[in-house]
Amino acid sequence: MANTSSKPAFSLRALLRDERFWQIAFQVILVIVVAAVFSYLFGNLNRNMSRSGIQFGFSFFKNPASFAIGEDLLSYSAQDSYTKAIQTGIVNSLRLVAASVITATIVGVAAGVASFSDNWLLQKISRVYVGLVRNVPLLLQLFFWYFAVFLAAPRKENQIVFPSPNSPWLVISNNNVNTVGPGLPDEVWVGMMLLALSMLLFGLLWRSLTAFREGRFAAGLAGWFSRIGNAVMIAFVLLANYYLLFSNSAEDRLFFKGALIALFTNAAGLWIVALAVMTAVGITLWRLRTKAMLERGQEGKVYLAGLIAIALLAVVIVLLAFDWTVPTLVEGGGATGGLEMSVRYAAALTGLTFYTGAFIAEIVRAGIQSVSRGQWEAARSVGLSNGKAMQLVVFPQSLRVIIPPLNSEFANLAKNSSLAFAVGYPDLYAVANTTFNQTGRPIEVFLVMMATYLSLNLLISLNMNQLNNAVQFKER
Amino acid sequence: MTTVSSRPIERGAPRVQSIGPVAWSRKHLFNSWFNSILTIVLGLTLGAALFNLLSWAFIQANWSVVADNFGNFMSGLYPPESYWRIWSVLGIIMGLSGLTWGLLARNQPQLFSRNVLIGLGAIALFFILWPLTRPHTPYLIGVLVLLAVAAAAGQAIGRKAPGSTKWILAAWLVSYFVDLYLLGGGPFFGRGTLSPSLFYSIIVMLGGGIVAGWQLSQRISIPQIPTWISKIVLFLVGFIVVYQVLWRLPYALGLDVGLKNVSTNSWGGLTLTLLLAISGIALCFPAGVLLALGRRSKLPIVQAFSVAYIELIRGVPLISILFMGQVLIPLFLPEGVRPDRVVRAIIGLTIFSAAYLAENVRAGLQAVPLGQSEAAQSLGLNKPLTTALIVLPQALKTAIPAIVGQFISLFQDTTLLGIVGLVELLGISQNLLASPTYLGDYKEGYVFIAAIYWVFCYAMSYGSRRIESALNTDLR
What we know:
heterodimer, A: 476 residues, mainly alpha, 8 strands, B: mainly alpha, 71% helix
């Protein structure tokens, strides 16, 4: 593009032929068009809102919500404010997402691995499951589980008790599902979720701190943007974690007890803290062991013994300290105790689990297929069985193909959890919808809802990216 | 050292061992004690489940909800006396599909191969044997015959006039508006305050105006004025004159043609589902491609807009966007302007799917080697042409499976409109199943529509696999 430098005289023809002119002109036009569209839309919004006498603002969230929420972990009552209602919805959504991430991963990995089984029947069952579930809409499946399975269960007078009334390990009626489980108080469950959330946030903190420590920023303006972004991220994470860990439910904006406060004021919670510490120690030991084995050629038996001791201790704690209870049957129908779920929660959980599980199964299958056949053959030739070859050689290698799509699948799961409101589960979307219907303030409610889902997704995808970096090839 | 073999060495390919069923099941089902147990347990469970399923489907299930309301499932509350309009829409679609098929397959020696004939025969047999479609057999068989005849005609046309393939897209575009008019009815021409039908205003008025203006600007040249100005002026003159004439002439002549108006509130069932899905797909595809190109663009502002849009939309659940579409779109428009709710639904679906499709297309774009565009540029193609002729076709070819996957999920996502008030297939089922007549018939209703969804989704993914293998020229 030497034409402009050699000819200082201005020429329209040269300008029109200059690619750079068109690039800039195009972008300027784009900005003008977008700005015009936005100003038109927001001008309309402004007029529409002022005509109906609404002032944009979030202060109405302090008003009493005066609607009931079917199930909650924050002891919400109808006199409480909209803020508390929304937070109850968020906790309900988190509770559903957290549980279904775990169950869907288990189902999906099992089905994905099963499609490589040398048992023909198992292989075909896995394929049929995936082919059937992936091609039917999730909402329909949720309706099916709720209306056709759980609501069709007998009433609580003649509920299903499995295996026998003397040992009711699983009790199903069209109202509740009770099963053997740890009988922890609500506060501790919430505390555990918040702890997990703050761990994910610490993952982000770690990312930003590493960026500063290693100082790998691009030169120029972009680098400074990135520096500012990371600094803001650190500040935000520290603030959010402060609230997640130490918030006190006495405040009038946050209505949950911070994770550490909730856990340290409960006996079972203390054991959970102990488990978390032990997990950290275990991971450190594992790293030390790997280091000792790789760098010093030791066998690392001491570390192994430590790891085994920690694992045993953890099992003992889980079994003894968590108040595992069997449901007790109530005279005249119903059951209490154990792990209690409403049928709405159970339907949403089952539907999300099987639907997402089918997608995860496909992801796992594609990942395993991507490992070259030579790896299988090499593993078999050193004497590993089919199962061991999968477990020790093939599956770990397939992780680097599996994790990126798994990331978006978890994000999809978090978004799909909003469909649980269709079966009556009071998640964030359901609460937001009711709030909007009562107050007639769609913009503010929509902003709150969108911000929550966006940050949840961001949290999931950034942490999964970290995980992805950890399993990629370490190329020198 | 020589090894002496008593057997002569065999030449040629290894012998294929034919294994009997016993040996086969030994190898695939009972090759170890673990697998044997697994096979037995799975076989028994599967057998019991199949037995229960069949006995439910043929003995216990009460299929009257499906049998009595077949028309509702297919077309919602559409007035039965106007069913002929839906039949004609189906006829148009099948006729065009046949023509397209024939035109595209014009070079194949045999259009109706054995498999195609078997498939068509099986579908026809299904229509005849299934009690629910039996009353409509003449129409259905007629539509199938139309498909076959149109395919043969299309092949004949394609062989005589190979250039006719480029009209396929235009024909589909026109047929879309014809179908919309057939479904919705209303006055064909505008009268007084009534606006003309979409078909007339878009295809005839707009299209006629553009063609007239274009022809005028091509054929006439005015001396003494720069050509580009004269072309624009002539185009505008031709366009405005023809547009105005077409708009006012029918009214002046007193033409009053039109079908009975069927408001979108009466659209429903499978018809509405397909309309929503097809409109969404047709709109989100170009939008997604543009967004993907924008995201890959080197222009910073274009890229920033695309990234912001894609990430924002991908971070929130679809249901919240549909909610926005139903509630917020009227707020952002001037007072009194309130698009039809089907239109709002299509807008919501498009906004959502375009972001996901953009990511799929971006993956395809990334897979095209840089050498391709460098080669194109060295041949003298400019940037837009390089993208349109070289990069995009290859990117789309790579991205076909992902794109079709996105179309499938868009098709499934139309179910969410059932919970914002449209009576598409799932919505109408919810309404029917809520009526006291069919109390507790949830399973029957859901299984029926699940089968419909499954057939469509499976057909789409089967089609995508066929296209993929037909276009996969690398491995030949």
